[in-house]
Amino acid sequence: MPWVGQSLADDERFANHQARGRNQAECDAVVAEWTSGLAADDIVEQLAEAGVPAGLTYKASDMLRDEHFKAREAITRVEDPEIGPIAMQNVFPKLSASPGGVERTGPKLGEHTDAVLAEWLGYDVETIAALKAANVL
């Protein structure tokens, strides 16, 4: 089935955001019928040719294989002390003068609690110990 975008754009049921909302189930059915026999790449290509901004929705495994993600260094690998190397999203946007980077995974639960209580709230060692003894922390 060829791309039906122009005929949909001329259809009053789908002419604007409110109309598409009122007729969402019907719109979804038309799009589902059109896309059901096409590969995702073909859908994106047809939409691009028609001037419709579109892109693929990736699973994590897709991102790890995608050449564009690799070229942009969108995925980085960092060492986690408990599970070893892990792939994760890199800094975005990547600025030319200050590109940034990911140096580590997040802290363990409670890893910085003592420091926050001491440095930010002014708690002394005895107060923190008392909170721990009372199972507050």
Structure notes:
It comes from Jiella pelagia. Pfam families: CoA_transf_3. The mean pLDDT is 91. The protein has helices at residues 5-9, 17-22, 24-35, 40-49, 60-65, 67-71, 113-119, 125-133; strands spanning 75-80, 84-89. The chain folds into three domains: 5-49, no CATH class; 58-106, no CATH class; 109-137, no CATH class. The protein has eight helices and two strands. It has a two-stranded antiparallel sheet. With 137 residues, it is mainly alpha-helical.
Largest sheet: 2 strands, antiparallel
**Rg over CA atoms:** 25 Å
**What is the percentage of strand-forming residues?**
5-15%
N-to-C span: 62 Å
Structural class by sheet pairing and helices: mainly alpha
Helical segment count: 8
Strand order of the largest sheet: 1-2
Question: How much helical structure, as a percent, in the residues?
Answer: 40-55%
Count of spatially separate domains: 3
What characteristics describe this protein?
single chain, 137 residues, mainly alpha, 3 domains, two-stranded antiparallel sheet, 44% helix, 9% strand, elongated, CoA transferase, transferase activity
Q: Helix and strand layout, with pairings?
A:
Blueprint: H1 5-9, H2 17-22, H3 24-35, H4 40-49, H5 60-65, H6 67-71, E1 75-80, E2 84-89, H7 113-119, H8 125-133
Antiparallel strand pairs: 1-2
